[in-house]
Amino acid sequence: QVQLVESGGGLVQPGGSLKLSCAASGIILRNAGMAWFRQAPGKEREFVGYISGSGFSESYAGFVKSRFIISRDNAMNTAYLQMNNLKLEDTAIYYCAAGQAAGIEPAEYEYWGQGTQVTVSS
């Protein structure tokens, strides 16, 4: 059974940083692309960024603007999302997803975590 578990969310002030983790079990991460999505209240789930199984290919949504970095440690079967210079509008539930896809649509990913809340507030 595949399980993805996110952690690292919390409350942070504008301009602050958080690092989210996504620990996988039941799936070998080096064989799967990993993506991060987020969903704010009343909004659709949106793509944040993606990293390939090898870690050599990355892509990000336009709003990231070099503030976020996705990485992975295949030996630990874990992916990460480093978020810097956080803004109020980054407040959302953040989800990690895994699968053979490399796209920006949620439907392209087979496996999902339960999400972790990120709140940016002064």
What this model shows, in words?
There is one protein chain. Helices cover about 0% and strands about 50% of the residues. It has strands at about 5, 10, 20-25, 35-40, 45-50, 60, 70-75, 80-85, 90-100, 110, 115-120. Strands 2, 4, 5, 6, 9, 10 and 11 form a seven-stranded mixed sheet that branches. The mean pLDDT is about 95.
Strands, count = 11
Alpha-carbon distance between the two ends: 40 Å
- Poorly predicted ranges (pLDDT <50, ≥5 residues)? none
Rounded Rg: 13 Å
Helix content: under 10%
Order of helices and strands: EEEEEEEEEEE
Largest sheet: 7 strands, mixed
Shape by Cα distribution: globular
Mean pLDDT: 93
The percentage of residues in β strands lies in: over 45%
Number of continuous helical runs: 0
Structure class: mainly beta
Task: Summarize the helices and strands and which ones pair or pack.
Layout: E1 3-7, E2 10-12, E3 18-25, E4 33-39, E5 46-51, E6 58-60, E7 68-73, E8 78-83, E9 92-99, E10 111-112, E11 116-120
